[in-house]
Design brief:
- With 265 residues, the chain is mainly β.
- The protein contains one helix and 17 strands.
- A five-stranded mixed beta sheet has the order 3-9-8-5-6, with no helix packed on it. A five-stranded mixed beta sheet has the order 11-17-16-13-14, with no helix packed on it.
């Protein structure tokens, strides 16, 4: 009897061991992988136009202790209304509707819902600053029309002297938009990746945008459109972009290599 039970026991032990190995293998192979996919279906606004009314290009705002207010005028679309499209399903969106993304220097954008009215961007340090702005859909995708982007420089406190190292706003320029902040629940499954490219055209033989997540290169983007990032695990992630020229070199200018930290909950 012992001679029969011993091989059976050994067989069961080996079998259990193999089952554990298989389970571990399945666990490793079924872990979510980070990927991006094109986002489509946004309604076109070909006539959308944004103008920065104030501050003027090169203007010096005297009092560095006051909050800075900017005024922007949008035509060809309507702010503060929801965008009608299926793209709002399953991704983060603003219940306040369409809005302007307002970027001061390299800070994350602020949302302005009031057309043509002063918008408070806070107290800015003395010196030179840049404002970049473009309208967006309810789900924060930038509206990519020929005249929907505007940028200019101004100063607070005193006009700087000499070369300040500021970006050339007439040269190829990359502006980061999304993702931003925290994503929880169903919003975390598909995270919008969006940016604005000015003074350059993306393409296989032209400029491109390199995407990296947590320091790992994911892909080179050669078509200017929104994308969805999937497979992001819970926790903090750093999203980085780099504008690359047609010769494979990084385009100079601090704005052309933006990054932001986001949280997946």
């Amino acid at each position: 009897m012992k001679q029969i039970l011993l091989p059976l026991l050994l067989c069961l032990l080996v079998s259990c061991g193999r089952k554990t190995d298989q389970t571990a293998s399945l666990d490793s192979t079924t872990a979510p992988k980070i990927a991006i996919e094109p986002a489509t279906g946004s309604p076109p606004y070909p006539d959308a136009k944004l103008v920065i009314v104030s501050p003027k290009e090169g203007e010096v705002l005297k009092n560095a202790l006051d909050s800075v207010r900017v005024v922007m005028q949008v035509t060809g679309m309507e702010l503060a209304i929801p965008t009608g499209a299926d793209s709002t399903k399953g991704i983060a969106y603003s219940k306040q509707g369409q809005h302007i993304h307002v970027i001061i220097d390299e800070k994350p954008y602020m949302a302005d819902y009031k057309n043509g009215q002063p918008f408070n961007v806070g107290v800015l340090a003395p010196g030179k600053h840049t404002i970049r702005a473009f309208p967006s859909y309810s789900w924060h995708e930038s509206i990519k029309a020929p005249e929907s982007f505007a940028a200019r420089t101004f100063s607070v406190g005193a006009a700087p002297s000499g070369n300040t190292g500021a970006n050339d706003l007439k040269a190829p320029l990359l502006t980061y938009s999304r993702p931003k902040g925290s994503y929880t629940g169903s919003d975390a499954g598909r995270v919008l990746l969006d940016f604005f490219v000015a003074n350059a055209t993306l393409g296989p033989d032209a400029y491109r945008v390199m995407l990296a997540i947590d320091g790992n290169a994911i892909t080179d983007i050669v078509k200017w459109q929104p994308y969805f990032i999937t497979g992001l695990a819970k926790g903090k992630h750093t999203i980085s972009l780099q504008l690359i020229d047609r010769n494979g070199k990084a385009v100079p200018g601090g704005y052309n290599n933006p990054s932001q930290e986001i949280t997946i909950g």
